[in-house]
Design brief:
- Helix content is 58%, strand content 2%.
- By secondary structure, it is mainly α.
- The chain folds into three domains: 30 residues, CD2-Gal4 (Irregular); 152 residues; 126 residues, no CATH class.
- Strands 1-2 form a two-stranded antiparallel ribbon.
- β1 and β2 form a beta hairpin.
- α3 runs antiparallel to α4 and α5 runs parallel beside α7.
- It starts with 14 loop residues before the first helix and ends in a 7-residue tail after the last helix.
- GO terms for molecular function: DNA-binding transcription activator activity, RNA polymerase II-specific; zinc ion binding.
- This is Zn(2)-C6 fungal-type domain-containing protein.
């Protein structure tokens, strides 16, 4: 095996690169890593290695997140700060293309003014974005997430023409902060990554009605841009492989095709084949047109029987689910998806190694196509 290229350790890198254990180019005011991920870049003060400067705070001179009483002046200040962060920074990570700027920066916040559960979801994700750099925002993020989920569950049973847009927008935000959990929950068991996917599917089960009854209206609304393909060109993945996105997708799709052949011979062929087809279609929409909505909503398409197969650790069902993790890893440049795919793949591979090693090898082949050298070496079967 060739030796890894050595590099000079960055001594004055930004806090974000230090936290992610990546080399910082130390460019100011923002390094290339932070610019690419559209997050605030902050450096330690040269005179004090233990104290951050005012600019290091995600909210500038306003400091850390307060813990205000409901309805207080501090609450209004907190929410103003969260809305400002959303409209200037956080919304950018949801864009698939610059055409969606107006949707996420203007349309969704305006819609949230009439639907409290959507407003709480927006504030929750904004707080999550801030807590990515400053953990003092964790409490605010959890509070608003809880309110958003409670309100969302109540309204999901009364879907109609007056709220389908708000419910659809809220479902996307819920999916995003579900994926973002992997950054804050490294202490949890890896097997929890499996349950997170199933819980998300159960929680959003009713969202399928939106696609069934309001799909045409959504495409004609401001949300239509989410379904319009864009040309990603030959942009390379930001994960360090240097492999163009279309080539990575071709490799993963070829492995899915091998699984499809195997699935056709199983006693659960219907559930397996349906899951593979939906996942392959979602990946194709992203690789050819930059549409990531299908990838994010794939768990919502699970049939009940496929869910049962995952719960009983059916090897083929797990091999398919592992490829969802592989494909989610394509989005890792977005702060909320950074570790989600890797965590899911790492949870499934040891199970497959014991039950169906040849399928574990197929997952490894796909993972190697999308993961950086360092990530591949951290995979449980990297020696295969």
């Amino acid at each position: 095996m060739p030796q890894r290229k050595s590099h000079t350790k960055s001594r004055r890198g930004c806090l974000q690169c230090k936290q992610r254990h990546v080399k910082c180019d130390e460019a100011t005011p923002s390094c290339s890593y932070c610019i690419k991920r559209e997050i605030t870049c902050s450096f330690l003060s040269p005179s004090d290695d233990n104290t951050t400067s005012l600019d290091a705070s995600p909210s500038g001179q306003l400091g850390h997140a307060p813990s205000p009483a409901p309805g207080s002046t501090d609450t209004r200040l907190l929410e103003l700060r969260l809305m400002h962060n959303w409209s200037t920074k956080a919304f950018k990570s949801l864009r698939q293309h610059s055409d969606e700027t107006y949707l996420w920066q203007v349309v969704v916040p305006e819609l949230a003014l009439s639907h409290e559960y959507l407003l709480n979801a927006l504030l929750a994700l904004s707080a999550r974005h801030l807590s990515f750099e400053d953990p003092t925002w964790d409490r605010a993020a959890l509070d608003y997430e809880d309110r958003a989920l409670t309100g969302f569950q109540l309204v999901l049973g009364s879907l109609d023409s007056s709220n389908y847009e708000a419910i659809f927008a809220c479902s996307i935000l819920i999916m995003v902060f579900s994926l973002a959990q992997s950054h804050w929950q490294h202490s949890r068991q890896l097997s929890d990554a499996l349950m997170d996917v199933l819980e998300l599917r159960q929680f959003l089960a009713g969202v399928g009605l939106i696609h069934k009854d309001y799909s045409d209206l959504l495409r004609l609304s401001s949300f239509g841009t989410l379904f319009n393909p864009h040309t990603p060109g030959n942009l390379e993945s930001g994960n360090g492989t240097g492999v163009p996105l279309p080539e990575m997708c071709r490799i993963v799709d070829s492995v899915l095709e091998l699984l499809r052949v195997e699935a056709a011979q199983s006693v659960h062929a219907g559930s397996h084949s349906s899951a593979i087809s939906d996942l392959s279609q979602a990946m194709g929409a992203y690789c050819s047109g930059g549409i990531m909505t299908g990838i994010m909503t794939w768990p919502v398409t699970f049939r009940d029987h496929y869910v049962n197969l995952i719960e009983t650790r059916d090897p083929m069902a797990l091999a398919i689910l592992a490829h969802y993790g592989v494909i989610i890893h394509l989005l890792q440049d977005r702060w909320w998806a950074a570790d989600a795919g890797k965590r899911l793949v790492h949870a499934i591979l040891p199970i497959l190694l014991e039950s169906k090693r040849e399928w574990a090898e197929l997952v490894q082949r796909s993972w190697s196509a999308v993961a950086s050298e360092q990530s591949s070496q951290n995979t449980p079967i990297s020696g295969l």
